[in-house]
Design brief:
111 residues, mainly beta, Immunoglobulin-like, six-stranded mixed sheet
Length: 111
């Protein structure tokens, strides 16, 4: 199992470069930070959690979308986007993308 993400700027039709992303694991009532990185030139981050470190449970990816939009000289309704998801099969790969526009976003479980 491993975890990856990517961000697509659907308003521009291209990858969203340099979006800060925090990956966390829920441990009881608290969130444990596992990784913090920015998307690359393809809007991607691979290996947020590697196979040996993945475990069943609840994860959260938080995308710093407001700061990214400001750096692009654009407005955004979303100061940040948090995607919370459940890992039930730690031996599988989880890819959680974010499709982002100024006033909307969507996500799905990719491959």
């Amino acid at each position: 199992m491993s975890l990856s993400t990517h961000v697509l700027d659907t308003a521009e039709g291209r990858p969203a470069v340099a979006v800060d992303v925090t990956c966390e694991f829920r441990d009881g009532d608290t969130w444990q930070v596992l990784d913090q990185r920015a998307t690359d030139v393809d809007g991607r981050i691979g290996g947020l959690v590697e196979r040996d470190d993945m475990r069943a449970g609840t994860y959260r990816l938080t995308f710093a979308t407001g700061a990214w939009a400001r750096a692009q000289g654009r407005d955004s309704f979303w100061p940040e986007v948090g995607i919370v998801f459940e890992v039930t099969a730690p031996d599988e790969h989880y890819h959680v993308p974010l499709l982002l526009s100024p006033y909307g976003y969507s996500t799905y479980r990719g491959s």
